[in-house]
Amino acid sequence: MSALLRLDGLTVALPPGADRPHALEGVTLELHPHEVLCVVGESGSGKSMAASAIMRLLPPGVGIEAGRVVFDGQDLTEADDATMRAIRGAGIAMIFQEPMTALNPLRSIGDQIGEMFRIHTALPGSEIEARVLTLLEEVRIPDPRLAARAYPHQLSGGQRQRAMIAMALALDPKVLIADEPTTALDVTTQAQILALIRDLQHRRGTAVLFITHDFGVVAEIADRVAVMQHGRVVEQGPAVQVLEAPQHPYSQALLAAVPPLGAPPPRPIAEEPILVMEGLRKTYRTGGFLGRGARVTQALRGVSLVLPKGATLGIVGESGSGKSTLARCIVRLIQPDGGAVHLAGIDLLGLKRRAMRQATKRIQMVFQDPFGSLNPRRRVGELVAQGPMVHGMPRRVAMARARELFALVGLDPAATDRFPHEFSGGQRQRIGLARALALEPDVLVADEPVSALDVSVQAQVLRLLAELRARLGLSIVFITHDLRVAAQVCDLVAVMKDGEVVEQGPIGRVFTAPAHPYTQALIASVPGAPAARPGALL
Amino acid sequence: MRVLALAGRRLAASLPTLLIILIGLFLLLQLAPGDTVDALMAQMGGGSAEIAADLRAFYGLDLSVPAQLGNYLWRLVRLDLGFSAIYGKPVATVILERLPATLLLMTASLSFAFFFGLVLGVLAARRVNRWPDTLISTLGLVFYATPSFWFGLMAIVLFAVHLQWLPAGGFEEVEAGLTGFARMLDIASHLVLPTLTLGLIFLAIYLRIMRATMLEVLTLDFVRTARAKGLDETRVITRHVLRNALLPMVTLIGLQAGTMLGGSVVVESVFSLPGLGRLAYEAVVQRDLNTLLGIVFVSAVLVILVNFLVDLAYARLDPRIGAGR
Amino acid sequence: MRAIRAYLRGPAAMIGLVLLLAVIAMALSADWAYPRDPLSLAGRPLQWPGANPRFLLGTDNSGRDIAAQIFHGARISLLIGLVATGIAILIGIVVGALAGYHGGWVDDVLMRVTEAFQTLPNFLLLLVLVAVFGSDITTVTVAIGVVSWPAPARLTRAEFLSLRSREFVEACRTLGMGDMRIIFREILPNALPPIIVYASVVMAVAILLESALAFLRLSDPNVASWGNLIGLGRDVLRTQWYVSAIPGVAILATVLAVSLVGQGLNDALNPRLRGR
């Protein structure tokens, strides 16, 4: 079978001063009709750059240095601008990671989809309108007429991505490039969008170049897989072969780092509780002047949970479930409207501000964003020493302690006088961990601590966390949207939806025999999970 | 309707702002040496202490400060701005006589600055870091740094004195007794230099903002989407970038309305235009505090009105407004 | 260090720096170059520049040396610009930081007051202040500072709004730090670069405001201000236009220098925009 799209030794040069000379080096790929080719790699592997290079939409300063991109018998690297414009949208269409920003906020959905026809065809307005509605129906948006008139902000994330897909498929392109199209979506929405892409691809015979970092998604959708590292394709082949018997050490490492969904054997858990949450409630009121047009969001509707001493309690849920609000209520970054939090018998919510500042010593937080959680203008040693210094430790002692903590979390103690930007994401998360541990807390609240990290780094940080838990006797509240991650570190798990805990219990029980329909749906949606494709990954 | 209700709500929200201004100014003027009666007495060439006391009682100046404030606010509600001792007329009348010239000047300058700022900003952004951009950006910087009154004076020297193309000042040739279209032309020719003078600095600001926003919007994801759809650069700009880039420009009109009114004080003085700004200047020189307070009140109301119109325009441009973002 | 090197790379920024240094040099050398009172009678009035080698830039309608007034005026302009900017930025930072960090009713109240100041045309407010408090140089400087703070306050507030929800600020709170320490030691250093850049805009406007006030003869008549001289020259504009023209060029150059330096700082401190 001849290739529809062929990348032939494609080399893309980065501007001088970048961290490496080439974004892509001799990338050779073939995309055949009727297939889904997944290009998978971690951040910086050049996978997105490949998509931009095919469309010739590279950022300024970045240029194709060598190689060819052959589409339909034509070398796109040499095509003139007019030819490229005719191919974009009509021959090769593209969908992006973040549908909110990828759509023009000031124009209606129908208008933006219709634009495809207006620029590439001479169809009359009424015909365009009809086709837009047909497309919206095809991507299964509820009430296509309403959706066509709506503006992007009026749709949900999943609906926006459906609209993007409708737009991309408007002119029946031969190739669809999907650049991490489900990364910004919740897991259940992701499952629906993946099913939709799969379905449309079957029916229309479109060839799909699917770019992702997630092996679960690969298992879900790929016919063939290409693994990229540092701008090179290190391995490619049929999906089953790459997923089950990877040849290249990098592919093997990547796959090994994907946590299995099954829980490890249960550890013995103490009876004695250390942290008790009782009926926590929080309501947000946004907008509205003098009570008009105000919107009320119930982020927490009476959440009661118990964390036994030395255990790890996972709190899982999709965005908007209230899990982050819960984490912030526990450490009183947010003042709940009602309920109680008892830390070893102390009622945290009843404490005055000064007393609460004292109590923070015993309960500390680790944050999600490795870039945003460290003050960029302070040296990392100082960041770690700050906590003890606030609580009265002399500076010299605190700095010495910071160096010890650096060693504890696996960083070079000599690095304490550097600034945060000199560290990688995983290293920064270790610094954040050291900062939280500096106060020797009893309880650690970790809010999505590994979500922003690449999968291989994720595994290392999770291992470190488990190790520290054992050595220091920590009790942990672990917030995550990723069930695989939860399965690795948690003893207990609570599933949250719309501000309520719908199910809780030992993780092994909840994940193997979920009782609540939502938990069942959540587990079934995990990409690459056994329910979806038996034997694919686990 | 939704848009109107929204802007109306914003208008209502500016009432407390207006109240803060009025109370603040009233208290400020309590600190001023001398009051209306002193000004009047000076006008009359002095008088006995009894007459002064009578006059103070007549104007309610013998009351306590809060009572005076209450009186003052109550008079404002009835649109009574008090009496100008200097002009011998109610302040409201004096201001109304002067308002048209200022409104005309402001509208003209704003249109000039907005239109050319937009065009030049787009041109500069499309040729970023090449010579048209360098030229436009440099011009913008120089315009921004030029004191408007000085530019006005130099324009008078060049266009009125040496070239004699345009009149050096005034609002119209009253002696010529022109009517209808001829009068309009006459007024227009008198307003050319003042408009350029007042508009210059705003032109500089608008072009700089327009250039910066254009460059910013061009990096956004939906522009990449538009290109991936196969749109050519011109359509990418006209259909996707321009409207998004207009939003900060429109906001800026509201923010700059006050500054522009302030600028008209100087420009009207340079070109002897019978407007609000020059009235303010005269009021300061003649210590006519009643009139000055009235002008400040009217200016604040004007700025609030401009912001109301800006809100309307913004809500029309941006569908996200009113959806609780 | 890196910021300085980045700054020195921009040609416009270098021109601005050179211009600014020239103006500063004029201000510093005024007493030495023209030791006499610049406002005293020096010679025959209205001599054109170059007509008399004693008066390089000629004399004004009262027979005072224009060059001397330009040199001494540089001092006044820079001084007023710096002090007024300092006042405006200080008020702006305090108001904006408190409003942005605390939110809620503190924000509401402070923003209403800021809005009130922004609704008043700043030059009109300046006129009112001068009318009430008189027009000696100190009053004028303070008044210019007082009418200029709302914009820096809004900018600071916006920076604080975006920074206060950042996780490093939350981390400081979970460590038990007090509010004042978080505001001034943790958030402010991160919010400062755009505010410093904006200070150049405030300074440019302050210099322009003072010159406009002086042009209208509402500023201190006893100091050698460029604006005063332009106002004076207005009486002989039709024939001896140079009296107004020369100090105008001085103002233009100074404001341009301040703006260029500000822009250079912006490019150096916000590397994201460099090369665009």
Features:
heterotrimer, A: 538 residues, alpha/beta, Rossmann fold, 3 domains, 6-stranded mixed beta sheet, 20 helices, 37% helix, globular, B: 325 residues, mainly alpha, two-stranded antiparallel ribbon, 12 helices
Annotation field: number of helices of chain A: 20
> Beta fraction of the residues of chain A?
15-25%
* Annotated CATH topology of the largest domain in chain A: Rossmann fold
Shape descriptor of chain C reads elongated
The level-1 CATH class of chain C? Mainly Alpha
Class by alpha and beta content of chain C: mainly alpha
Task: Give the CATH architecture of the largest domain in chain A.
Answer: 3-Layer(aba) Sandwich
Organism (chain A): Plastoroseomonas hellenica
Family (chain A): Belongs to the ABC transporter superfamily.
Domain ABC transporter (chain A): 5-255, 275-523
GO molecular function (chain A): ATP binding
What features would you describe in this structure?
The complex is a heterotrimer of chains A (538), B (325) and C (276). Chain A has 538 residues and is of the alpha/beta class. The two termini of chain A are 32 Å apart. The C terminus of chain A is likely disordered. With 325 residues, chain B is mainly alpha-helical. The two termini of chain B are 18 Å apart. In chain B, β1 and β2 form a beta hairpin. A two-stranded antiparallel sheet of chain B has the order 1-2. In chain B, α1 runs antiparallel to α12, α5 runs antiparallel to α10 and α5 runs parallel beside α12. Chain C is mainly α and 276 residues long. Chain C has one domain: MetI-like (MetI-like fold, Orthogonal Bundle), CATH 1.10.3720.10. In chain C, 74% of the residues lie in helices and 0% in strands. The longest helix of chain C has 37 residues. At the A-B interface, α2 and α4 of A face α9 and α10 of B.
